[in-house]
Amino acid sequence: MRRPIHPSHHRSAARATAAWLAASAAALLLACFQTAACAADPAPTDRVPGKDLRTEVASAATSGRSASYDGVVEALRQTSVAAQVPGAVVALTVKAGDRVQAGQVLLRLDARAAEQNAAAGAAQVRAARATQEAAAREYDRQKQLFEKNYISRAALERAEAQFKATQAEAAAQLANAGAARTQSDFHIVRAPYAGVVADVAVVLGDMAMPGRPLLTLYDPAALRVKASVPQTAALRLPRDLVAQAEIPGLAQRIVPTRAQLLPTVDPATHTLELRLDLPAGLAGVAPGMFARAWLPLANGADSRVFVPQQAVIRRAELVGVYVVGPDGRALLRQVRLGRAEGDRIEVLSGISAGERVALEPQLAARTR
User: Fold this and answer.
1) pLDDT of 4-32, one tens digit each?
2) For residue 144, which of 45, 106, 168, 329 sits 20 to 30 Å off, Cα-Cα?
3) For the whole prediction, is pTM greater than 0.90?
4) Quick check: helix, strand or coil at residue 14?
5) Cβ neighbours of residue 297 under 8 Å, at least 6 residues apart?
6) DSSP 85
7) Across the strands, what pairs with 330?
């Protein structure tokens, strides 16, 4: 005699069958997905994005040798040449970048009116000298007549006074003519010293006015690096200051001929101005170039941060590294680099010691 099957047994069997079918379908879909993925990317790889990104901790190195401060190259002698008289520019003989000698003509202004005044002054000098010569001859005759008692002493004194008056008039006219010639020379602008023309601010036909800069001239043989040193660092400088200058592009640091730290502190930035005189004859160095001043520190150590050079990425004007946070995300951060030492490079600003940087910037850019 067959026992009746309870309805709950039918329901349990149905649920088991449905679960088996669902598991089979999921396994089949997973197999298809894996097959499609393998067909789409046949190259074998064991790289898992975000988990096998190689990183390294930015290390801090202590150095009691020197610290760097940003600066700029400037000329000890840089002059804005201007005219002393008004006039239109009629000749321009130099351009930016030209080397000039002391006294060389740089430009000329319209001097026709001044030349006419100088010519008039010269004519007045000739007239005064002719009058003086006539008065001198008259005075000589009066002296001869006085010696023969033909005239009185009063007549001789009048002739002498007339001669002295014409002599003074001639001297006055000669001085006026010299002033007119000097005024005419003001229309010719000459180089005050040998140097390089940095900028020309006028073109032919421009009106020059007294005090208006016409061109800029500097002496390339007298350059220096000017940098701002924080007052906290200035207190740690040794008594005998031995500094060095660095200009990007040159192969080595430069030993200045003179180092001067001004005693006054800027109240706005709390920094002191450091001046490093560069030796003459440095090729390719010009005012306005970026430079660094390296100073030794007497007390304490200067903490410097280094990262591997392969972690640095350069995109046009951007220089940065990918910093990997505690959550594993890689974020690009802009940095300012210093000197390279072997396979590592100093980071002046942008990251701190202990932060982790990605050694494969290209991979970090794809997995962040």
Assistant:
1) 444 444 444 445 444 544 444 444 333 33
2) 168
3) no
4) helix
5) 64, 65, 66, 67, 233, 236, 237
6) S
7) 324
CA distance 16 to 250: 80
What token pair was written down for 34? 């894996």
Query: Coil, strand or helix: which one is 32?
Result: helix
Is 160 exposed, middle or buried (CB count within 10 Å of its CB: 0-12, 13-18, 19+)?
middle
Tell me what percent of the residues of the chain surpass a pLDDT of 90: 36
Tell me the C-alpha distance between 101 and 197, whole Å. 11
Q: What angle do CA 220, 278, 282 make, to 5 degrees?
A: 55
Residue from 330, 338, 334, 336 nearest 359 by CA = 330
Q: 210, 178, 203: which is closest to 96 by C-alpha?
A: 203
- Within 8 A by CB and 6+ apart from 238, the residues are 296, 298
- Region of 97 (left: φ > 0; alpha: ψ -120 to 50; beta: rest) is left
Two tokens, residue 116: 């006419």
